[in-house]
Structure formats: structure tokens, C-alpha cells
Amino acid sequence: MPKIYLSPSTQENNLYVTGGSEEYYMNLVADALEPYLRASGIRFTRNRPEMTAGQVIRESNAGNYNLHLALHSNAAPIYGTLRGVDVYHFPGSINGTRAAEILADNFRVIYPNPALVDTRATTALGEVDRVRAPAVLIEIAYHDNPDDANWIINNIGLIARTIALSLTEYFDLPFVEPLQPFSAQVDTESGRGLNLRDRPSVRSAVLGSIPDGARVTVYGLLPEWAAVEYRGLGGFVRREYLDFD
């Protein structure tokens, strides 16, 4: 399963023109994104609001991540004069550039003015050029512009869904709408364990075996597979071997 480092802004002093802060609203986006990640089989580590940028970078670099995803909102050099979504990536990173392009394409579908959504190569942002993993930093519109600030505030769920859709495209995973998590019991009928797999395919790697009769938490459903978690390990199982009570 792919694993990302999820890094909503820790900039509590970057204030929205409409009230609230960049840290507050980007953490709301991350909160809304988490169920999509679990449902689609994307593992994640998330930063914490009290962390500094340097601590975030060090924690990301200490792990083994397939993508570093930073969530921010922007401010113009001349207050309130700009609008749009910018997705930053490192110029020498093939995967980072590809992720940025996918995100920008999908944001063009939801942002009011698609022409103002762009990708930008940079070597001046620590969460792009100082992390080991391929990285993207999304500036989700301008919080010093009333129209953009209100767009963010009124579209938290849609923004999160768009990011999730982009990540599943990037990782070549099926997009799964999240469910309210619920418990199910493994029932293999043979008494043997149930394979927990990396992806919803019998050809994918086996992450472990879940004992017959054990209970799992279900986060999302596909026609033949379920995204589940068992003892802290997430993956996919054949849904025919789950008893939904």
C-alpha cells in the first residue's frame, strides 16, 4: 500500500480575511481527507499543529513515504489582489511533477476559474526541496482574498475529495467513497486465515493473515473487495469472506 506524509499547514498566524487561520482550515481539509485515504487503501502519517516546519521535514525524512503532501493556502504580495490554486513541485522530480499535474488537472474541475490553477516548480520551499520523498505543496487559493477564502471555507469536503481522487490516480488505485467505519467478522468457512492484501487484487502482495472469526474495521467497499483495518494494519480483503452481521 502506498504511504504518504500528510502535512497541513502549521501557520496559525496566517489569518484569513474572513476569520480563522491557515492552520485551522488546512487541518479541516486534512480531517476530511483522512476517511478517503483509509477507504482507498492509502496509509498516512500526519503532522501535528504544534510542530515547526523543520520538525515536519525531519519527521517526513525519517520515514519511508511514497509522497509528501503539504496543504496550505496563499497570500498575495499586495494584500487581496490575487486568486487561484498553485501546486508546487521540485523541478527535478519526475514523480513530484506528475503528482502536481494530476492535482492541478482535478482542481481545475472544481475551482471557479480553471485558468487560475497552475503547477509551479520551486527550489525555495522546504517541504518541496528538502524532503526525501517526491513532494507537492498545494496552495489552495488565497486566504487574503474574500472570494477565495470563502471558496475554501464552503468547499472543505469537495477539496478533500478532489485531493483523494488525485492521489488514487497517482497511485493507480480505485477511488472508493468512504463509509462510516463499521465492524465486520471474518468468515472464511474453512477456518483458515484471510489474506490482507496491499491492493484490491489477488496478484497483489499479502500484508498478513487475519484469523477466521476476527473482527475488522471496514472503511470502504468495492464490488469484490473491502478496505479494512486489523490491529492497526490496513489493506484489502475479499468481501465475500466478511460477515456484515
Automatic annotation (TrEMBL):
Q: Which InterPro entries match?
A: MurNAc-LAA_cat (IPR002508), SH3-like_bac-type (IPR003646)
* PROSITE patterns, A to Z: SH3B
Q: Report keywords, A-Z.
A: Cell wall biogenesis/degradation, Hydrolase
Q: Which SMART domains match?
A: Ami_3 (SM00646)
The SH3b domain, residue ranges: 184-245
Highest taxon of source: Bacteria
Protein name per UniProt: N-acetylmuramoyl-L-alanine amidase
What taxonomic ancestry is recorded? Bacteria, Bacillati, Bacillota, Clostridia, Eubacteriales
